[in-house]
Amino acid sequence: MKKLPVILTAFIMAISSLCFIGCGDPPPPNNQSDIVKYDGNYNFKIVGSSNENNITLDVSNVSQSDYAANETLDIVMLKPYEYYNGEKERGIYFERETSDQGEIIGTYNVDNEKTITIDRFTTEGYDNLYNKFILAKDGNLAAGPFFVSNIKSERNYEQKITATTKKGILSQGNDELLNLGVGWTEYNINPNNFIYPNEYVDGEGNIVPIDNSNLSENDAITFESNGQTYYFRKSVIENMDKDLLFCKENNIKVVYIVYYLKILDQMHAPYFMTYPEARDYDKNKIFAIDTSTELGANYFTAAMEFMAERYSREDGEFGWVHRFVIGNEIDLSSEWNPVFNYNEKEPLDTKQYLEEYARTLRIAEQATKKYYSDSMVLVSNCHSWNGNRTALASYSAKELYDYLNAKVSYQGNYNWGIAGHPYPKDLSAAAYLEEEVGSADVNGDIDTSLYITWTNLEIYDIYLSQEHLLFNGQIRKVYLTEGGVSSGGYNSPTASRNELCQAAGIAYAYYKSMSLECIDAFIYYKLIDSAADGGGCNFGIYTDSMQQKASYEVFKYIDTQYSFDVANEYLSSIKFRKDGQVYSVANGKITSYESIMNVCDSDFDWEKQWSEDKIIVRTVSTSPQID
């Protein structure tokens, strides 16, 4: 099935200094006439805010509509997974003919302004923060949906950890984090591994409650969310606490990568946390987070609220989590984020697929912002950018970001970020510049480059610097949460050169990352080689037998006063051809890492942005072993 492309029509309104829900329809900015626009009614807007006790909705016209002056519209509240008559984007329910009625909570007279206030919590304890709001006429959608995005957080303090370096690495042993002097690390978190199920489905399809109230305090930690009690596995949570307290003690910031694993036993993991039609999909073990049902949405909300509350306490009692990645490489749905069994059912088109993910992402944003004002949720994409992947159920990352931005800006804007994975085009390539420079697939144009790799990493900065993608006038942030440079196969005839190229490639990746305004963290993947990464993809700075590679010293000292000492030792390993000419240290066309930053001839101003002050941020007492 062909995926329907996101239609490039007019534009969306530039993000204002307020947290809007909805926006008007002003003239397009200069040189931005092809901005993707959400398919909604831009004549109305609802600005939604929350405090401890109330939800406030400010409703108004922003432009002339088809409705008569003073004509009455209903203000309707629905759950985030419910769909009103006339809503086109329904995710997995795109073929469903029935609609949800919601609850009418007030009325609005066209061409006026109105503010209504409702209770934040229902008598059952459900938090209306998560609901969506629409304007309706005679049971049909008039405008929306809109969400609450101006959230008053329980906690509002400056982050306690001020990392001296943006350098980080995936944790495969906390002691090495200290040896390498990192300021960031990350952990993979699977909520369906640490939350007890409150029900199961019997052989006849009936939902049968499970009484967890008799679980001992040694087995479970209880938590209230949306008026329900959830039980979290204490042993798993205490291990999470241990890692986070280690990072707190050593001034290391943490990113959680949140995704679901395949549910093999519904008495161990809640059945409703993954999509029913994906449960028999046998391609991988990682599955999309299902928020399309009441139970699924409530489980995910509970998991995110639990982590947000526990890991944002000002005193850091259990440590801190600074950023949450929601899902893994969502542009590759069949491999990392399945909502269906793609052996039996065709993929959703881009808009319907994004409706599923956008709902989940917003719940995560609201749940984390509910507790801490400086939380941020991140969207993960692979190194494919402009839709070149031929795998089933793969989507263009740029297309997803274009429409996510349009959708979120219309429905209620918030500060989402990107979790980028800028591997080389050939994952196993050690000398990636040699393969990529001059390639049409890896270039400096945001609209034509098929990949974002270390070679053209500035694509992120160029893309996010566009006016319509800014948040409150500031560039959105990128956290490089996965991406490495392989040293190739151990038995390769070029193994020795590959190891040198890996060291040079890591240095190049770090220097390029530090020059980009949008990048807040360079979290390298990975510490130790693993056969699970596939043939020839040995990204570690240790071999699988724990032998240090040449790249170990480079990575360890790349952000210190010895940065160029360790990196320049491998500069001569970099060679490539550009515009018919060979570039190398030997022929004098490569004189430094700085001299080869702009190998893709992009519009990025490398001369202005390159700064050794951004690169050298630590002074250490130890010194590298340099030949």
How would you describe the overall organization of this protein?
- The chain starts with 43 loop residues before the first strand and ends in a 12-residue tail after the last helix.
- The chain is 22% helix and 19% strand.
- Strands 9-10-15-18-19-20-21-22 form an eight-stranded parallel barrel. A four-stranded mixed sheet has the order 5-2-1-8, with no helix packed on it. Strands 4-3-6-7 form a four-stranded antiparallel sheet, with no helix packed on it.
- The longest helix has 20 residues, at 350-369.
- It contains 14 helices and 24 strands.
- The chain has 627 residues and is α/β, with parallel strands linked by helices.
Features:
alpha/beta, 627 residues, eight-stranded parallel barrel, 14 helices, globular, four-stranded mixed beta sheet
Structural class call reads alpha/beta
Query: N- to C-terminal separation?
Result: 57 Å
Anisotropy-based shape: globular
Q: Quick one: biggest sheet? A: 8 strands, parallel, barrel
Gist?
The protein has 627 residues and is α/β, with parallel strands linked by helices. Helix content is 22%, strand content 19%.
Which helices and strands appear, and what pairs or packs with what?
Layout: E1 44-50, E2 54-61, E3 72-78, E4 103-109, E5 113-119, E6 132-137, E7 140-147, E8 150-151, E9 167-170, H1 174-180, E10 184-189, H2 191-194, E11 199-201, E12 207-209, E13 220-225, E14 228-233, H3 234-249, E15 253-258, E16 260-261, E17 286-287, H4 294-310, E18 323-326, H5 333-336, H6 350-369, E19 377-381, H7 397-411, E20 417-420, H8 432-436, H9 458-464, E21 478-480, H10 495-514, E22 519-524, H11 550-557, H12 563-568, E23 576-578, E24 581-583, H13 606-609, H14 612-615
Parallel strand pairs: 1-8, 9-10, 9-22, 10-15, 15-18, 18-19, 19-20, 20-21, 21-22
Antiparallel strand pairs: 1-2, 2-5, 3-4, 3-6, 6-7, 11-12, 13-14, 16-17, 23-24
